[in-house]
Write a structure and sequence with these properties.
309 residues, mainly alpha, globular
Length: 309
């Protein structure tokens, strides 16, 4: 299953890098690649949205959602097999899904473009562009480059996967704000983004597309609800930030687990329309709660914190 295409220099470069990597280098690459994964990005987005700057968090969230959707739509068009599938000289040093067969393409996903590279370019690039601070721009470029390079050093992406991921993330952070200026009402803008995301339902056969689609729906609806009914305020107080992040993390990962319990695990992991629909609704509800419902508790948390103090 899937397609094989690459430039001859790509597996050669990856092989050369891997034979010169010692255990320390592998561990460093595995650490760096985490900055393009869900856990770290959720923490960063949560801190910026709940604590640091809500407007920046919304900007990041929109770019991240659309970059993720476009990435998965492209993956399902090109269906490129991962490098180690077809090149014995390339070793998979960190599977996308640990515990699953590394040659199970349904579990490990397609290769082109790199989601980690796209995520890092979209998130860290958005932070740099929004803040307009030079040190943030330098940091964003450095992290994005390191995350991308770690992906082909670990054997899970071709260099061209990484390059396309970077370009996709950069496209999102410049195109989305430009597009938003064309709409007078935010809900119309969000509806347009949703509509241009829907074609993936016609051909996407991987769960990551439906996760991204559900996240975008929940984020858009949550932002509209929060702006009208909640209007929470950011905080730079370290204690408040820690509390908001800790509880928010428990809610995010806890709900993500709880909402799976009513369903048969085999159904959730199946490539069926029902499984995809459940995934969309599950992520939409999760993001809506995180973006709009949970911030309603910030004032109560502050009162409890003062009372305990």
């Amino acid at each position: 299953m899937g397609n094989t295409f690459y430039f001859s220099w790509e597996p050669e470069l990856m092989h050369w890098l891997q034979i010169h990597m010692n255990t320390l280098c592998v561990n460093l690459a595995s650490l760096v690649t985490l900055f393009g994964e869900e856990l770290v990005i959720v923490v960063i987005l949560g801190y910026i949205y709940w604590c640091y700057d809500k407007k920046m968090g919304i900007y990041l969230g929109i770019n991240f959602c659309m970059a993720g959707i476009w990435n998965t739509m492209l993956k399902n068009i090109f269906m490129r097999r991962r490098p180690y599938f077809d090149n014995t000289s390339v070793i998979c040093l960190k599977p996308v899904k640990s515990g699953a067969d590394i040659y199970d393409i349904n579990a490990q996903g397609f290769s082109f473009p790199s989601g980690h590279s796209g995520n890092s370019a979209a998130v860290y690039g958005s932070i740099a562009r929004f803040s307009k601070k030079r040190w943030m721009a330098v940091t964003a470029v450095g992290i994005t480059l390191l995350v991308g390079c770690s992906r082909f050093c670990l054997g899970v992406h071709y260099p061209t996967d990484v390059l396309c991921g970077w370009l996709l993330g950069l496209f999102a952070i410049f195109f989305i704000p430009w597009l938003q200026k064309k709409f007078k009402k935010k809900w119309v803008f969000y509806l347009f983004l949703f509509l241009i995301s829907l074609p993936g339902c016609l051909y996407c056969k991987t769960s990551d597309y439906y996760s991204a689609l559900g996240m975008s729906v929940g984020f858009y609806l949550g932002n509209l609800f929060e702006e009208k009914y909640v209007q929470f305020k950011n905080t730079r107080n370290i204690g408040k930030c820690v509390i908001r992040l800790a509880i928010g993390g428990v809610i995010y990962f806890g709900l993500n687990t709880l909402m799976k319990l009513p369903f048969d695990p085999q159904l959730l992991s199946s490539a069926t329309a029902l499984a995809y629909l459940i995934r969309v609704f599950r992520y939409a509800i999760l993001l809506f709660i995180i973006v709009a419902v949970y911030p309603m508790a910030f004032d109560k948390l502050e009162k409890l914190r003062k009372k305990d103090a």
